[in-house]
Task: inverse folding
């Protein structure tokens, strides 16, 4: 069940990235090999207990994982900034019934990680978001569009953007 939900109007933070273009994308030479700076960033399988996101327990496992990560210059002391891109399809399974959904969550993101454990994501495209506390109802979602995710040090998630599409994984596999 896909819905278009106006999560927060008036604050559109759009990060436009020119990934894979320019001199760094040129073919390497024999005398000076070029490194892209992109390194694999594999996703691990995961489990969520019944009641944490959906009324039933979930298992997630990447079935396509070509995500790469690149460190970017830090915006401030104590903050790391990384860019992520690549194909990612996660099979999310209802552990009680075996029903599953293959979620294409191949979005791109720039993520600031703070020493406190908080994170701030600037996202273009779909990502998988589990929500316990936040401005979306408790659940597991494919969130799509151009938006930000502010994750507090306690794990509360606030998704903002002019219009954000959400697809409930709990509804799909429940």
Result:
């Amino acid at each position: 069940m896909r819905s278009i939900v106006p999560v927060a109007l008036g604050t559109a933070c759009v990060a436009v990235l020119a990934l894979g273009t320019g001199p760094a994308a040129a073919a390497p030479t024999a005398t000076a090999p070029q490194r892209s700076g992109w390194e694999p960033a594999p996703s691990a399988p995961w489990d969520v207990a019944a009641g944490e996101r959906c009324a039933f327990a979930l298992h997630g496992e990447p079935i396509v994982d070509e995500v790469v990560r690149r460190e970017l210059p830090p915006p401030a002391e104590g903050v790391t900034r990384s860019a992520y891109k690549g194909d990612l399809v996660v099979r999310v399974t209802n552990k009680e019934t075996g029903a599953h959904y293959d979620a294409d969550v191949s979005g791109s993101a720039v993520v600031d990680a703070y020493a406190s454990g908080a994170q701030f994501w600037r996202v273009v495209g779909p990502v998988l978001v589990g929500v316990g506390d936040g401005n979306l109802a408790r659940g597991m979602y494919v969130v799509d569009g151009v938006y930000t995710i502010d994750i507090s040090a306690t794990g509360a998630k606030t998704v903002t953007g002019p219009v954000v599409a959400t697809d409930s994984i709990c509804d799909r596999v429940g």
